[in-house]
Amino acid sequence: MHAQPDQYAWFAVVSTAGPAILLSALGAFVMLLLGSEIPTFSLLLLSLAVALVGLGVGMKFIRSDFHARRAIESVILWVLAGAATISILTTLGILISIIGEAINFFQIHSFWNFITGTTWAPGNSFLAAAGRGDGSGAEFGSVPLFAGTFMITAIAMAVAVPIGLLSAIYMAEFAPARVRSVAKPMLEVLAGIPTVVYGFFAAITVAPFIVRLADSVGLDASFNNALAPGIVMGIMIIPFISSLSDDVINAVPDSMRQGSLALGMTKGETIRDVVIPAALPGVISASLLGMSRALGETMIVVMAAGMRPNLTINPLEEMTTVTVRIVAAMTGDLEFDSAETLSAFALGLVLFVVTLSLNLVSVIMIRRFRNKYRVNNL
Amino acid sequence: MSDSYDQISQQLKSRHRKSTRLKYMSMGALALAGAFLLIFFADMLSKGLPAFKQAMINIEINYTEDAASNGRAAVDQDLSTIISRSVVRVIPLEMRNDPSLLGTTVQRWVLASANVDQYLKGNPVRGLDDEEKARIDRLVEDGRVEMQFNAGFFSRGDSKMPELAGIMSAVVGTVMTMIVTLGIAFPIGVMTAVYLEEFAPDNKLTQLIEININNLAAIPSILFGLLGLAIFINFFGVPRSTPLVGGMTLALMTLPVIIISTRTALRSVPESIRHAAFGVGCSRWQVVKDHVLPLAMPGIMTGSIIGLAQAMGETAPLIIVGMVAFIPDVTASFTQAATVMPAQVFTWSGEPSRAFVEKTAGGIIVLLAVLISLNAAAVLLRKKFERRW
């Protein structure tokens, strides 16, 4: 079992190729990182030499009492563990890339102004980066951006939470199995529609409809109003809320329902006073997840919301969001180290922190629910 | 006593009414969600289906001396304003490539201009005067103008002329990007899941990795774009706008989806199979490779297809790494600028011309058709191979 011919063969392959591949990867990385030129040809030659040495050493090991299986498996274990660390590296990569550039930004503009300023006007900051002008007049106060983001998120949640939660209640408590088997995939289709498609729908169909509606009651609405992206984003989030809430409501133990019904409560009262309070941590967790998705949603607002920062509470007016400004800063013809481009990373940092904390709270809530009712499949 | 009976039964009635009200309210919520979906699809189909039809005009092309330098000379002056500019533009080139054409006359179906196309589809058009409209109506009566299936929409790349714009370059770009994405995310995702589920000791590092993966799944996609820009493009020097950098960025985004679904699939393989394999002397890796992974494969494939569909519809991170380029030619290369289907939809939606609204919706229909069939494939796969232990 642990000394089969093919295992010896694999051992030979690993001992030959392993060090050689490591060496060439290291060489390539050093070349990239330090910019020092190692001729590709000599690197290749060196790798081949190492491969030969590896083969020789490997052959020396192969004896009848040598356990090739154990040797290969330790290598496999390292490779698997290496793959697992890539997810950590991704998070680190996001953190480093965002924080690094955000620090550059905060060296140009004060952190305090960024957090509390109410005027977002990148203005001529790109001229300053090119060495012309001093970039004065550029202001990076992010309050209007966050106000817009939270406004649109609030509209989305106002649409998604009631519809999502009630749909979940219907599916978990009332619906016959046949309806359920149709409704669940239908909601999943909503979740599978690309956001760019939602954005087009919001901009071309919903926004003009809202403008006409507002017109008919004598209100003045902008074509880039905050209501259209908000509503469409709400539709997008419905399945996130309904699907998790459905699972949570199903996980509430039946004994609680039976106890409540035995006391003479009607079905509606049981749901309202027993099931939903029990499932509340899960429902809140689902809503927080949906909220973090709404905050970070990009395409819908890029296509349907405005570009102009606007500090207002009127959802019929044009307003812009954090993600819109990130996209605007990244797609303009600006120098990479101009203040406006760097500001995108500062905005990204705030977005990262906010969504991360929402996710963490959501995870804690769902864990609390799981521990309370000892449910394992959530 | 009788009083209180009445009271209670009154109360009971209203309590049951409330219960029924909740039922209908929740039913209404679900119906509302369904209605949104219906309105959405009806809207997309009504806007996008006309894009699959294209007005064509049957014209006479005279390959004269003049036409060799100025393509306009080859066609009737009255018609030159209502056919696509692209038709006359290629005539000199055609003549250079095939000198024997000189002096011949060919009757041929050519693309009508976008204005004619929109006029025939009944949309308001600004670019045509009444005389031209009358001429088009006459041509329709003669059978010289026809709506034909718009094959060019599926075989051409992007163009600034709506009648010429097609989705092919975006489709090719999507395929190239998805090859990169899946090529990176699938092996790494499966390896990570196998490590966490079958090998990892339950220590702080493992818990950190798990929390981290769950968080990655919920991070806004645009931040992955910032990572791609700062790390892949600026640090490692991967060329901008290419399927390579787009695919790598999307791979990082798809990774958590694949890891989570693979772990679920691995977990659903019963312990007894592992015990049996250990019992005959298999090592941990042999158990995983020969028994657990093959049994979990359908679940892993389902999860990967769903992850792929998600990556295919993603736009925001690709905008940040520059994959919204204008790509008129269909090129299949990992290191040349490319665009993907959702990015193409985004580009077209920014075009002011009315004809592009139709193109955008047409592109959306193609994109949705691909995504829905992918998801349906995943569901079928799950149904076919799902095993209850």
UniProtKB/TrEMBL annotation, chain B:
It holds the Pfam family BPD_transp_1. It is found in: Cell inner membrane; Cell membrane. Residues 171-377 form the ABC transmembrane type-1 domain. It comes from the Bacteria. CDD domains: TM_PBP2 (cd06261). The keyword Transmembrane applies. GO terms for molecular function: phosphate transmembrane transporter activity. GO terms for cellular component: plasma membrane. GO terms for biological process: phosphate ion transmembrane transport. It is a multi-pass membrane protein. Keywords: Cell membrane, Membrane, Transmembrane, Transmembrane helix, Transport. InterPro entries: DUF3333, MetI-like, MetI-like_sf, Phosphate_PstA. The chain crosses the membrane at residues 21-42, 164-196, 216-238, 244-266, 318-341, 361-381. Belongs to the binding-protein-dependent transport system permease family. CysTW subfamily. PANTHER family: PHOSPHATE TRANSPORT SYSTEM PERMEASE PROTEIN PSTA, PHOSPHATE TRANSPORT SYSTEM PERMEASE PROTEIN PSTA-RELATED. This is Phosphate transport system permease protein PstA. It comes from Halomonas salipaludis. The gene is pstA.
